[in-house]
Amino acid sequence: MVVLMEPSSSSFLNPNFPPNANPYSRNLILTKKPTLLLRFHSPPTAAVDSLRCSATPPPVPGHPDPDPDPVPDSSSPDRRQDRRRAVRLAWEKLVRWSRSWRSKAKTDVLERTNKVVVLGGGSFGTAMAAHVADRKPQLEVNMLVRDPQVCQSINENHCNCKYFPKHKLPDNLVATTDAKAALLGADYCLHAVPVQFSSSFLAGISDYVDPGLPFISLSKGLELNTLRMMSQIIPQALRNQRQPFIALSGPSFALELMNKLPTAMVVASKDKKLANAVQQLLASDHLRISTSSDVTGVEIAGALKNVLAIAAGIVEGMNLGNNSMAALVAQGCSEIRWLATKMGAKPTTITGLSGTGDIMLTCFVNLSRNRTVGVRLGSGEKLDDILSSMNQVAEGVSTAGAVVALAQKYNVKMPVLTAVARIIDNELTPKKAVFELMSLPQVEEV
Fold this sequence. Notes:
Number of domains: 2
Low-confidence stretches: 1-55
Helix content: 40-55%
Protein name: Glycerol-3-phosphate dehydrogenase [NAD(+)]
Domain Glycerol-3-phosphate dehydrogenase NAD-dependent N-terminal: 115-274
Subcellular location: Plastid, Chloroplast
Number of strands: 10
Distance between the termini: 31 Å
CATH architecture of the largest domain: 3-Layer(aba) Sandwich
Region (Disordered): 51-84
Structural class: alpha/beta
CATH topology of the largest domain: Rossmann fold
Order of helices and strands: EHEHHHEHEHEHEHEHEHEHEHHHHHHHHH
CATH superfamily of the largest domain: NAD(P)-binding Rossmann-like Domain
Oligomer: single chain
């Protein structure tokens, strides 16, 4: 509380002021420099916070305000016109900045790049291969695939018969089952092999990999037995700790990339120059690429969001409603942030494109493989039946167990993601999991 004490000496007041005038105004007209005494009855910070200042004195009964401030009419035509003009100027300024930046943007990386190899013939590998091939007609893009039928389909019919039978692939995109031929002379390598198979796959082709070939990882997940991320798997499998590495992540469905719909993603590398180079290589008029140095944050968010998507699917499959969905996803986001920051990630990464952006897409959209697994689990189907009916890998299923092990390693409580792991291990039913989660102690939000 602040007490304002009136100066005791009458010499501070204007002697010519009419005695019957507003006493508040009389005390405010000074002829000399006054001394204002403040007496604090509580800490200064609280006092300042509670103090409310006004340019005009409070009204006094019997003394109406002679000059009240008119309330502006915000709906008047002039006001609306001013607002529109301000918005238009702000937008024009943004567009000028964007054009200026684009005019200075470097394109030398794309010009110098002659060959890109993509490891894996899945949906996302195919979509990124097509995107890179579209960047420059003279660019040679090789896809290293296992399935001879897919290889033949790409080379003869210019489509991936397994994943995108109705999408025509660029003429400069070819497929092969020969690792040596695919990797020979490559300037960049896009790794799109599922995480659980990456280590053995890379060990088998390591003899053909140039030590300086940059690996751009499209794979999201954690290796189940070792808890390793792709930034650890790739250099160790290739027996080269200095193998250049970049993680590509963000909210991106392969189908929408194939349809050239606007998309934004993040490339993360500890080497800033390398991240900028990959940004130049991949960015286009329908794909925005941001750069980051937080490799751990980008990778761990990309891995854990798949597990959370299974949880979101379970809520949908059980018809628990929108309130439940929002509460569960919010809790899951907090759990991902707790673990990621314990592992050294930046909180801003978790709230960015590769974190919250990817979580929103994977948890709320039906195209998500992991969400689909959750929906079917919540509807009562058995996991084995679900997985045997899918032609793509749902990384969240194998990642769930690794997440629990990481949580124990870093001493982080992750009730939602742990519940998913228990359901996948058939040790907990979705209904029982919901009951246990709702019975957790009521705690302060952090």
